[in-house]
Specification:
Strand content: 5-15%
Order of helices and strands: HHHHEHHEHEHHEHEHEHHHHHHHH
Distance between the termini: 84 Å
Shape: elongated
Number of helices: 19
Helix content: 40-55%
Number of strands: 6
Amino acid sequence: MSENSEIFVQLARLALVGRVQDVHAYLRKVMKRIEKSDEDLAAHIASLLAATKPGPSAVLRDAGTFQVPVDADTRLSLIRQEHPVVLDAGPVLPGDIALRLTQVIAERRRVDELADQDLQPSKTLLFSGPPGVGKTLSARWIASSLGWPLISLDLATVMSSFLGKTGTNIRSVLDYAKGMQCVLLLDEFDAIAKRRDDDGDVGELKRLVTVLLQEIDTWPPTSLLIAATNHAELLDPAIWRRFDEVVQFPLPNSEQRALVIRKNLGNAGEELGPLIPVLEKLWEGRSSSDITRSLMWLRRRAAITDLTITEALLELIGQDVHAAAAADRKRIMGILSQMDLPQRKISAATGISRDTLRKYRGGKTDAVSDGEMNDG
């Protein structure tokens, strides 16, 4: 087959499945290739591209072209769609991760500049990290920033006791997302991309992983595929090198914890603001979502009781102390000793004896025993 024939076949294939963005990207590549050998044809293609550049409504037109994939038996949708994606605030991320995700967005906004260098934007991202560190929120933020629909695979509907049916369901979702401009989020990716050396898995599941690898390799520039996992150790080793970008999300550091606290204090900011350094240390090792959840609980607790927000905080700390192991109790007690509050108030709210509090304020650092807790 001649080069011109290959170009024609590829264009026909993209056009017949309705991939408008892919047609544009491929034509730009062709134009780059022939601009020296056939200037007139290259100029004509450039004028066509300029005249037919997809407008803001292209996303919605493409989304309406395809039928939403459903399970053949239950007729339940295999995906969740969100458009527009509306966020109160973006994720709180380390500077290096924020830079990489901002780069992904910038690439999509400057496709022409990349094409001039015979480059394509990042098409596939893998997010890895513990729960609550911002993986899903980051995917939503990217979709919101681009103004694209967010399509999420509904694992509860996709997974079937008949593994062959699971494979069919996943293929339906992937084909749907490939045909439109969107962000496809495969959350809990480890559930469908497990290691193929697990002897407990049957052949069909291993074949599904092979299909996923092929799909990632050939993912079109039309859409952006984001896979997220809390259990990176479960992923098949071949998965990692297939993605354009692999982003490891860590637990928030002290600066990020303080920022999450400030963002979620609301009208409690005036009272708890001076305690932010204490709270940041208290919640070391917790995810952003855990910190947010604790602050929302505090605000609700104060709203429906006679407690002040500080008293609600001390009550929560008391619960943490009672539930903590001895080593963690020692750390929490050290933090409590830094709070500029009366010992009687701290003791009443936390259930920690005043004698114990005095020992810590005097510099004692032994672990807190159950016998050093008040009855209430």
